[in-house]
TrEMBL record:
Keywords: Hydrolase. This is PaaI family thioesterase. It comes from Pseudomonas juntendi. One of its GO terms (molecular function) is 1,4-dihydroxy-2-naphthoyl-CoA thioesterase activity. PANTHER family: 1,4-DIHYDROXY-2-NAPHTHOYL-COA THIOESTERASE 1 (PTHR43240), BLR7284 PROTEIN (PTHR43240:SF7).
Length: 158
Protein backbone atom coordinates (compact mmCIF):
# COMPACT_ATOMS: atom_id res chain seq x y z
CA UNK A 1 0.00 0.00 0.00
CA UNK A 2 1.37 3.43 -0.89
CA UNK A 3 2.12 6.01 1.79
CA UNK A 4 -0.60 8.29 0.35
CA UNK A 5 -3.18 5.48 0.52
CA UNK A 6 -2.12 4.60 4.06
CA UNK A 7 -2.28 8.24 5.13
CA UNK A 8 -5.76 8.58 3.65
CA UNK A 9 -6.94 5.40 5.38
CA UNK A 10 -5.46 6.58 8.69
CA UNK A 11 -7.23 9.94 8.42
CA UNK A 12 -10.56 8.21 7.69
CA UNK A 13 -10.00 5.79 10.60
CA UNK A 14 -9.26 8.63 13.02
CA UNK A 15 -12.28 10.62 11.80
CA UNK A 16 -14.52 7.62 12.65
CA UNK A 17 -13.48 7.77 16.33
CA UNK A 18 -15.68 10.36 18.03
CA UNK A 19 -13.54 10.67 21.17
CA UNK A 20 -10.49 11.41 19.00
CA UNK A 21 -12.48 14.07 17.14
CA UNK A 22 -13.39 15.69 20.47
CA UNK A 23 -9.69 15.73 21.38
CA UNK A 24 -8.92 17.18 17.90
CA UNK A 25 -6.30 14.50 17.26
CA UNK A 26 -4.76 14.39 13.79
CA UNK A 27 -2.54 12.11 11.75
CA UNK A 28 0.98 13.50 11.30
CA UNK A 29 2.59 10.51 9.57
CA UNK A 30 1.64 7.03 8.40
CA UNK A 31 4.07 4.78 6.54
CA UNK A 32 5.95 1.50 6.83
CA UNK A 33 7.88 2.86 9.86
CA UNK A 34 4.70 3.35 11.89
CA UNK A 35 2.04 5.84 12.85
CA UNK A 36 2.38 9.30 14.37
CA UNK A 37 -0.63 11.15 15.76
CA UNK A 38 -0.78 14.60 17.32
CA UNK A 39 -2.82 15.52 20.38
CA UNK A 40 -3.13 19.33 20.42
CA UNK A 41 -2.69 20.90 23.83
CA UNK A 42 -5.79 22.59 25.18
CA UNK A 43 -6.99 23.59 28.65
CA UNK A 44 -9.70 20.91 28.34
CA UNK A 45 -7.14 18.08 28.64
CA UNK A 46 -5.19 19.45 31.60
CA UNK A 47 -5.11 17.02 34.49
CA UNK A 48 -3.21 19.15 36.99
CA UNK A 49 -4.38 22.78 36.99
CA UNK A 50 -1.43 23.85 39.14
CA UNK A 51 1.17 22.68 36.59
CA UNK A 52 -0.85 22.53 33.36
CA UNK A 53 0.25 18.93 32.73
CA UNK A 54 -1.98 16.88 30.43
CA UNK A 55 -4.25 14.30 32.10
CA UNK A 56 -3.07 10.69 31.93
CA UNK A 57 -6.38 9.68 30.37
CA UNK A 58 -5.75 11.94 27.37
CA UNK A 59 -2.26 10.42 27.00
CA UNK A 60 -3.72 6.92 27.28
CA UNK A 61 -6.24 7.72 24.55
CA UNK A 62 -3.48 9.09 22.33
CA UNK A 63 -1.23 6.08 22.77
CA UNK A 64 -3.93 3.40 22.58
CA UNK A 65 -5.19 4.97 19.35
CA UNK A 66 -1.69 5.40 17.93
CA UNK A 67 -0.70 1.81 18.69
CA UNK A 68 -4.00 0.49 17.36
CA UNK A 69 -3.69 2.52 14.18
CA UNK A 70 -0.10 1.35 13.68
CA UNK A 71 -1.64 -2.01 12.73
CA UNK A 72 -2.76 -0.31 9.50
CA UNK A 73 0.92 0.06 8.60
CA UNK A 74 1.63 -3.68 8.60
CA UNK A 75 -1.57 -5.36 7.43
CA UNK A 76 -2.31 -5.79 3.71
CA UNK A 77 -6.02 -5.02 4.29
CA UNK A 78 -7.94 -3.25 7.03
CA UNK A 79 -8.80 -5.40 10.05
CA UNK A 80 -10.54 -4.43 13.27
CA UNK A 81 -7.91 -5.06 15.97
CA UNK A 82 -9.16 -4.35 19.49
CA UNK A 83 -6.74 -3.73 22.34
CA UNK A 84 -5.83 -6.80 24.37
CA UNK A 85 -3.28 -5.16 26.65
CA UNK A 86 -1.68 -1.74 26.96
CA UNK A 87 1.11 -0.83 29.35
CA UNK A 88 2.16 2.77 29.75
CA UNK A 89 5.20 3.90 31.71
CA UNK A 90 5.03 7.62 32.50
CA UNK A 91 8.44 9.31 32.51
CA UNK A 92 7.64 12.95 33.27
CA UNK A 93 4.73 15.39 32.97
CA UNK A 94 4.01 17.24 29.77
CA UNK A 95 4.87 20.91 29.33
CA UNK A 96 1.78 23.15 29.22
CA UNK A 97 0.89 24.74 25.91
CA UNK A 98 2.70 22.23 23.68
CA UNK A 99 1.17 19.60 21.43
CA UNK A 100 1.95 15.96 22.17
CA UNK A 101 3.08 13.55 19.46
CA UNK A 102 2.42 9.84 19.77
CA UNK A 103 4.44 7.44 17.62
CA UNK A 104 3.99 3.68 17.47
CA UNK A 105 5.23 0.79 15.36
CA UNK A 106 4.38 -2.87 15.09
CA UNK A 107 7.32 -5.11 15.87
CA UNK A 108 5.66 -8.52 15.54
CA UNK A 109 2.59 -9.75 13.67
CA UNK A 110 1.18 -13.22 14.24
CA UNK A 111 -1.98 -14.90 12.97
CA UNK A 112 -3.91 -13.77 16.07
CA UNK A 113 -2.01 -10.91 17.74
CA UNK A 114 -0.10 -7.77 16.73
CA UNK A 115 2.58 -6.44 19.11
CA UNK A 116 3.28 -2.69 19.20
CA UNK A 117 5.54 -0.24 21.00
CA UNK A 118 5.76 3.51 21.03
CA UNK A 119 6.16 6.74 22.93
CA UNK A 120 4.60 10.15 23.43
CA UNK A 121 6.77 13.26 23.32
CA UNK A 122 6.61 16.99 22.78
CA UNK A 123 9.71 18.56 21.24
CA UNK A 124 12.19 15.68 21.41
CA UNK A 125 11.42 12.00 20.68
CA UNK A 126 14.49 11.14 22.77
CA UNK A 127 12.79 12.64 25.84
CA UNK A 128 9.46 10.79 25.98
CA UNK A 129 6.63 11.73 28.29
CA UNK A 130 5.70 8.07 28.33
CA UNK A 131 6.60 4.76 26.72
CA UNK A 132 4.03 2.16 25.74
CA UNK A 133 3.74 -1.46 24.64
CA UNK A 134 0.47 -2.89 23.45
CA UNK A 135 -1.03 -6.04 21.99
CA UNK A 136 -3.98 -6.08 19.62
CA UNK A 137 -6.20 -9.01 18.64
CA UNK A 138 -6.63 -9.73 14.95
CA UNK A 139 -10.29 -10.39 14.20
CA UNK A 140 -9.75 -10.81 10.45
CA UNK A 141 -10.78 -8.70 7.47
CA UNK A 142 -14.37 -9.98 7.54
CA UNK A 143 -15.12 -8.13 10.83
CA UNK A 144 -15.88 -4.47 10.10
CA UNK A 145 -16.63 -2.89 13.48
CA UNK A 146 -19.81 -1.15 14.54
CA UNK A 147 -22.61 0.22 12.42
CA UNK A 148 -21.20 1.98 9.31
CA UNK A 149 -17.63 1.90 10.75
CA UNK A 150 -16.15 -0.34 8.06
CA UNK A 151 -17.96 1.43 5.23
CA UNK A 152 -16.72 4.81 6.45
CA UNK A 153 -13.16 3.55 6.08
CA UNK A 154 -13.70 2.24 2.54
CA UNK A 155 -14.80 5.59 1.11
CA UNK A 156 -12.14 6.66 -1.36
CA UNK A 157 -9.75 3.81 -0.50
CA UNK A 158 -9.27 0.12 0.01
Amino acid sequence: MSDATLMSMAERFLSALKHCQLLQMRVAQADETGMTLVLPWSPAIVGNPQTGAVHGGALTTLMDTTCGMATLCVLPHFEVCPTLDLRIDYMHPSVPGKDIHGHAQCYRVTRDVIFTRGSAYQDDPERPICQVVGTFMRLGPQVKGGIRFGSSLKEGGS
